Automatic annotation (TrEMBL):
Residues 214-223 have a biased composition (Low complexity). Residues 274-537 form the FAD-binding FR-type domain. It comes from Astyanax mexicanus. This is Methionine synthase reductase. It is an enzyme of class 1 (oxidoreductase). The lineage of its organism: Eukaryota, Metazoa, Chordata, Craniata, Vertebrata. It holds the Pfam family FAD_binding_1. The keyword S-adenosyl-L-methionine applies. Residues 9-152 form the Flavodoxin-like domain. Keywords: Amino-acid biosynthesis, FAD, Flavoprotein, FMN, Methionine biosynthesis, NADP, Oxidoreductase, S-adenosyl-L-methionine. CDD domains: methionine_synthase_red. One of its GO terms (cellular component) is cytosol. Its EC number is 1.16.1.8. It comes from the Eukaryota. The keyword Disulfide bond does not apply.
Length: 703
């Protein structure tokens, strides 16, 4: 590569929760080390880039959200390129690479990335590097790390081809004398280095003393009893413990933090700025018996005083705080417990090498340290490898430092997945395990993501419950393991404790007594999340099939309440068949909404209710075993379901667990189509894909 101006390329990202943005920023950081200049922009900021005139290489990093939908920041871009009036050579000048992020626990894996990729190809754009699809279900880094590593050689070849064909893609007109000098200096460093600058060998970050101590620790491979040591979060075993490591480059620090004693403004303003409303919880009810394996709880919110219209199928975001006990522990561990009420001031470091560094917009300009750790940062998030790498620099013990290096290294990927990612280890768990690690507050703010709200499907219709919205949840439990103590899900655990003063036992029929003083009711921050697709068909004569085991039945309660009211208003109107497939463990313990569902059947709002109970004992006298799961019930009624979907243009809705149930239902649907229409598996899969494209096979699922 010539030593003149560093070649420039464009990075565009579409991110919902920050992962795609973080990866895009990592690519941007590494670009300089490889002799390139990277311009980075969010896809939503159309004024910052112009693909119609972009002749340099473009790198896309995009995630997928919901039922294969683009993230909010990519919606406008996807809509723009889908414009059917665009000519087939609209992007014939464009050379690009694309990294899609997804989760194979969901059916539409990397759908946004695939959609953009396919459409750019249709418009004449060309790949300069193979598309990557990273799976959050197995670990994004499994694909992301090697994809980024191979990107640099692909970029060199792309620029070389452009140069050979006199297509200048380096934006010479925008280069300044400063960038020319910078490019030459970067190239000089590259030429003089025998080791790739984005990987640091272990020897480059250890002192001779640390090496000796590390070697001593490596020889300790057995327990005192003589039994071989097992790997754990705190330690590795050979061959990893004796391997040279490819450790990622240290992420550049970019924030400066000051704590001052000054009056603090109303802190909750930042929550309200994100459209959250504080609303009272007017009722809370156990839907399952005490002896149920999992408890299900219904919460009723009073939104009568709020402008929050919704339809059945929409969801509500609930913003919950981090656990007070965990915030307290973190304050203590950081040595700033006595400064919790001081005001936090953030500014960019003048010496930062981080490109496009910004003070996080989700942190209020004036808030206390306690508020920041309670409402702004996701302290329960699994630390990414870049965070683990940064923690190395703040760890004193050489053995602990070595282990953290292993966990963030390429060679230690399996250990990172096993002991960090798969066990849901959080920052506090790492700090408890690695006792000599004492990171500064600035490092946490740089690496911990924004505290995200949790979405819950509306389990009601405003026609049936005006001024109210219901949602249902089960308390998520994380059993104790070697890496962390027993704990409950951040939001579900907080909710059940928060509503405990008004929580009614299972079987309570009458509504809670009205409280004269509304301030006595527990309150939560919520905002509506409008669905574009997960709604009843606009034509009520179209039949619908609903599959919702456990709490997955929640949105369908709203569907049926809505349909019940519509039938009352139009008694002679045409209404299509409604089928509901429901399942739970035990009929007598966790058959939630049983009375309401049976009433829907009785008044013909629900045409067919098909239930199954996976843990109830089978009747030995029954010649045929009863179906245990919803997919087994679907198979029993395959003829009817296939007829509804293909002959009557009906809709299929699935809600619930993505990891198991949704996959099983999808496989069952393929099997049903194959059996009923005598199709091979590939043709059946194409038919299922067509149902998705027509928005007649819809999912509201979670992992």
């Amino acid at each position: 590569m010539p030593c003149g101006v560093a070649p420039r390329f464009l990075i565009l990202y579409g991110s919902q929760r920050g992962q795609a943005q973080s990866i895009a920023e990592e690519i941007s950081e590494q670009a300089t080390e490889h002799g390139f200049l990277a311009k980075i922009s969010c896809l939503s900021k159309g004024d910052k880039y112009n693909l119609d005139r972009e002749h340099g290489p473009v790198v896309f990093v995009v995630s997928t959200t919901g039922d294969g939908e683009p993230p909010d920041t990519a919606l406008k871009f996807v809509k723009k390129i889908k414009n059917k009036s665009l000519p087939g050579d609209h992007y014939s000048h464009l050379h690009y690479a694309l990294l899609g992020l997804g989760d194979t626990n969901y059916a539409n894996f990397c759908n946004c990335g695939k959609t953009i990729d396919k459409r750019l190809q249709e418009l004449g754009a060309k790949h300069f590097y193979a598309t990557g699809h990273a799976d959050d279900g197995t670990g994004l880094e499994v694909v992301v790390d090697p994809w980024i590593e191979g990107l640099w050689e692909a970029l060199k070849k792309a620029f070389s081809r452009m140069s050979d064909s006199n297509q200048e893609g380096t934006a010479q007109g925008e280069a300044t004398e400063k960038s020319t000098q910078q490019g030459a200096e970067i190239q000089e460093k590259l030429d003089s280095s025998a080791v790739s600058l984005h990987l640091l060998k272990l020897g480059d970050v250890e002192t001779q003393k640390e090496k000796a101590e590390t070697s001593a620790s490596e020889s300790e491979t057995t327990e005192p009893s003589g039994a071989p040591l097992e790997p754990a979060l705190i330690r590795s075993v050979p061959p990893l413990s004796q391997s040279a490591l490819n450790v990622p480059a240290l992420p550049p620090a970019y924030l400066e933090v000051r704590l001052e004693d000054v009056p603090v403004e109303e802190e909750s303003v930042h929550v309200l700025k994100e459209d959250f409303r504080e609303v009272p919880v007017s009722r809370a009810l156990h839907l399952t018996r005490d002896d149920a394996v999992k408890s299900a709880i219904l919460v009723e919110l009073d939104i009568a005083d709020q402008d929050m219209p919704y339809q059945p199928g929409d969801a509500f975001d609930v913003l919950c705080p981090n656990r007070a006990s965990e915030v307290e522990e973190l304050l203590s561990r950081l040595g700033v417990g006595d400064q919790r009420n001081r005001c936090v001031y953030l500014q960019l470091r003048k010496d930062t090498k981080k490109k496009g560094a910004q003070v996080p917009s989700y942190i209020p300009q004036k808030c206390t340290l306690q508020y920041l750790l309670t409402w702004c940062l996701e302290i329960r998030s699994v630390p990414k490898k870049a965070f683990v790498r940064a923690l190395v620099e703040w760890t004193q013990d050489s053995r602990e430092k070595r282990r953290l290096q292993e966990l963030c290294s390429r060679e230690g990927s399996a250990d990172y997945n096993k002991f960090v990612r798969d066990t849901n280890v959080c920052l506090l768990d790492l700090l408890q395990t690695f006792s000599s690690c004492s990171p500064p507050l600035s490092l946490l703010i740089e690496h911990l993501p924004k505290l995200q709200p949790r979405a819950y499907s509306a389990a009601s219709s405003s026609l049936c419950h005006p001024g109210k919205v219901h949602f249902v949840f089960s308390v998520v439990e994380f059993p104790a393991c070697a890496e962390h103590p027993e704990r409950t899900g951040l939001c579900t655990g907080w909710l059940v404790h928060h509503v405990s003063p008004i929580l009614q036992p299972c079987g309570t029929i009458t509504a809670a007594k009205k409280t004269a003083d509304c301030s006595a009711l527990p309150k939560v921050y919520v905002r509506s999340r409008i669905s574009n697709t997960f709604h009843l068909p606009s034509d009520p004569s179209v039949p619908v099939v609903m599959v919702g085991p456990g709490t997955g039945v929640a949105p369908f309660i709203g569907f049926l309440q809505q349909r019940e009211k519509e039938r009352e208003e139009r008694q002679n109107g045409p209404f299509g068949e409604t089928w509901l497939f429901f399942g739970c463990r035990h009929k007598d313990r966790d058959f939630i909404f049983r009375e309401e569902l049976e009433r829907f059947v009785e008044n013909e709002t629900l045409s067919h209710l098909k239930v199954c109970f996976s843990r109830d004992e089978q009747d030995g006298n029954d010649p045929e075993p009863k179906p245990r799961y919803v997919q087994h019930q679907l198979l029993l009624h395959a003829k009817n379901i296939v007829h509804i979907l293909l002959k009557e243009n009906g809709y299929l809705y699935v809600c619930g667990d993505a990891k198991n149930m949704a996959k099983d239902v999808n496989d069952t649907l393929i099997e049903m189509l194959g059996n009923e229409l005598q199709l091979d598996k590939l043709e059946s899969m194409k038919m299922v894909a067509k149902l998705r494209e027509e928005k007649r096979y819809l999912q509201d699922i979670w992992s």
